[in-house]
Specification:
By secondary structure, this protein is mainly alpha-helical. The chain is built from four helices and no strands. It has helices spanning 3-24, 28-37, 39-55, 59-88. Helix 2 packs across helix 4 and helix 3 runs antiparallel to helix 4. The protein is elongated and about 80 Å long. The relative contact order is 0.09.
């Protein structure tokens, strides 16, 4: 095994451990806003998948690029759909202010 490959694997494993540790410490009430704020960062993953596809010269490379692109796209779309659902909770419902009495009192 080459030194470069061993270094890359070590960095990948350390990034996994640090990422898991950081995310596990986030309270549940902050997880959705944190995820919605990081949707732009997930765009970098799509760019990485496209670069992987551009640099691929074998069938395995093309398959890896396709899988990476599919997972990155699911991540971005899922993040935005969760954000949209979260923001819908704060919108006024139609007819929400119509339960007042005619004299203007609640």
């Amino acid at each position: 095994m080459s030194t470069g490959l061993l270094t890359d694997i070590s960095v990948f494993i350390l990034a996994l451990l640090v990422g898991f540790e950081v995310i596990s410490k986030v309270p549940a009430t902050l997880h959705t806003p944190l995820m919605s704020a990081s949707n732009a960062i997930h765009g970098v993953v799509i760019v990485g998948a496209m670069v992987t596809g551009a640099e691929a010269h074998s069938t395995a490379g093309y398959i890896l690029a396709f899988v990476a692109s599919a997972f990155a796209a699911m991540n971005v779309v899922g993040g935005y759909s969760v954000t949209d659902r979260m923001l819908q909770m704060f919108r006024k419902r139609p007819g929400a202010g119509t339960d007042r009495r005619p004299d203007g009192k609640a």
